[in-house]
Write a structure and sequence with these properties.
Elements: E1 10-12, E2 17-19, E3 25-27, E4 33-35, E5 40-45, H1 50-64, E6 68-75, H2 86-103, E7 107-113, H3 122-135, E8 139-142, H4 150-165, E9 187-191, E10 208-211, H5 216-224, H6 227-237, H7 241-257, E11 262-267, H8 278-282, E12 287-289
Parallel strand pairs: 5-6, 5-8, 6-7, 8-9
Antiparallel strand pairs: 1-2, 3-4, 9-11, 10-11, 10-12
Helix pairs in contact: 1-5, 3-4, 5-7
């Protein structure tokens, strides 16, 4: 394992606020990379269980590397039941999301939006910015801009807009006891969409893959915290489709890159965002760049 020493700098030129972030990775005798400066990684997704399904294996690697992890969901999953009321399933799924995050020793918060009503608008953006500022991430991972449902796509747009605004001192969230603007714009990454395909059924190819072969079983345990969704799908399909489908998708992505199981990512490289490969450097021992895309 070669964890090396990495010095990364990010500057938010557009807001007029600069921030230097230094992350040092060193190899310990145990073979586990420790962070001399703890990297804060926030996963911002639409619903409870999205983070575990899409990037759970990677989060487990980041936890083992000593990173501080946060999970932000836009909703508490208020439409995720055919038997409970909206209020009941919201309470159940919020508790499940909190428990799953706690198993990672991770921070968790919900933006308070409603299922099927996740949209990029001013009020929702203020809510997301406020919660992101409270966590103060170095890296944000969100949904693919193209996914199978609009909640995911709009959550991705909200994350992109929010990360751009985090360090702007004049952007006000108008929330009670607002958090301070961050020192710098965080690096922004997109997870693979569900099944790896967009709404048109086309593969959205990643820039790089993370090998999650060593964490796939623990990822299944992590996803199992969302018992209400597992029970719902098991009752409707007669098999444990919830865990099996996640595992099948991870195997599919692994087959694309030569790993047994994998998760795919792309980094947002637009103007005003850090271009340094912060996540790739932290996970370098598990990374494989995507090959040339098939025709």
């Amino acid at each position: 394992m070669n964890c090396g020493l990495t010095d990364l700098t990010s500057t938010n030129r557009l807001s007029g606020v600069s921030g230097r972030q230094t992350y040092a990775f060193k190899k310990q005798q145990s073979g586990v990379a420790d962070l001399e400066r703890i990297l804060k990684v926030l996963v911002s997704m639409a619903h409870p269980d999205d983070a575990e399904i899409l990037v759970g294996g990677t989060l487990l690697h980041l936890k083992s590397l000593g990173c501080e992890i946060g999970i932000l969901t836009m909703t508490s999953g208020d439409c995720g039941s055919a038997t409970h009321t909206k209020e009941e399933i919201s309470r159940i799924r919020y508790a499940e999301a909190k428990a799953a995050a706690a198993s990672l020793n991770a921070w968790y918060e919900c933006a308070g939006l409603m299922d099927v009503e996740v949209f990029l608008n001013a009020e929702n953006l203020r809510r997301v910015v406020e919660r992101m500022r409270h966590f103060n991430p170095d890296v944000v991972i969100t949904h693919s801009p193209g996914d199978y449902m609009l909640d995911h796509e709009e959550a991705s747009r909200l994350a992109r807009a929010a990360t751009f605004a985090l360090s702007m001192p004049l952007y006000q969230t108008r929330q009670t006891a607002p958090s301070e603007p961050t020192a710098a714009t965080p690096a922004l990454y997109y997870a693979d969409p569900l099944e790896g395909i967009d709404a048109m059924g086309e593969r959205r190819w990643p820039q790089f893959y993370v090998n999650i072969t060593d964490t796939i079983e623990h990822k299944r345990v992590l996803l199992s915290w969302h018992q209400s969704q597992r029970d719902w799908l098991r009752a409707h399909h007669g098999v444990d489709q919830y865990l099996n489908q996640m595992t099948e998708w991870a195997a599919k992505f692994g087959g694309e890159c030569g790993f047994e199981f994998a998760e795919g990512f792309r980094q947002h490289l637009g103007h005003g965002y850090p271009h340094e490969p912060i996540l790739q450097n932290a996970l370098r021992q598990f990374i494989k760049p995507a090959a040339t895309r098939p025709e």
